Amino acid sequence: MLGPPYNHTVETPATFFLVGIPGLQSSHLWLAVSLSAMYTTALVGNSIIMVVICMDSTLQEPMFCFLCILAAVDIVMASSVVPKMVSIFSSGHSSISFQACFTQMYFVHAATAVETGLLLAMAFDRYIAICKPLHYESILTPRVMLGMSVAITIRAVIFMTPLSWMISHLPFCGSHVVPHSYCEHMAVAKLACADPMPSCLYSLIGSSIIVGFDVVLISASYILILRAVFGLSSKNAQWKALSTCGSHVGVMALYYLPGMASIYVAWLGQDSVPLHTQVLLADLYLVIPPTLNPIIYGLRTKQIRKRIWSLLICCVLEHTCECS
Predict the structure, then answer these.
(1) Packing angle between helix 142-168 and helix 197-230, nearest 10 degrees?
(2) pTM over 0.70
């Protein structure tokens, strides 16, 4: 039986208030400093990756193009939450407007959906490069890459649009205090006066399908890659292939493990796992990958590392000449 109708415009709060990390208020200043350092690293690192790939004509292979898009998505994902987190932790400015809250929610979850698709695309790229090297250029054409990028983006939009609509149309007539440091959708949905279960189930099932689908295909790609690598006669070729794939697997572990732990802990462990642990896990899941991705790829990818060093040397030499 349907519940009584409600006036959405009347019951929509003008402002939400983000708590930060409940129970860790005494550590908020240290968290602000740590997050600021990580955010700066993420911005600088990902910007360098993007500039280096865009400027260097030798880095126009599909892998580097996907890496450039990944760097842009990482900047969007971190920028959606970290500035507000730092404001909460450093100055206690916890208010966020209704529209800004749901805009933040949309960008955070859409960016995570795009990122998992990019990780799948990069795994597919490595599979073609190692298992079908002679057909690499004929398979991963610019048209195919564009199609993959558009499909990844459309999938994220299709997933997030209904979720945002469902949550934003819930009546919020009670507490407007969100026990989180950003507008995480389950934390906001639980404040609604109506039953938030449909949106929560949609999010859980949708996230599980998207991530499960991507993880299965990524795992299949790397199983085939390992079979091909261990079939190589050259130990040097084996090491080179494993080294390249190792950095990708490390990035994926940093993304998937905390992310899925955050989602399922919020559902299954909400009574056994302390709230501050749940919130901190959700925060780090959005900050650590954008911070470490450029470091891992910058240090592990020879072409990017050489290009960054050459740019740094040019900058130092130009600065020295100007000073003299």
Answers:
(1) 160
(2) yes
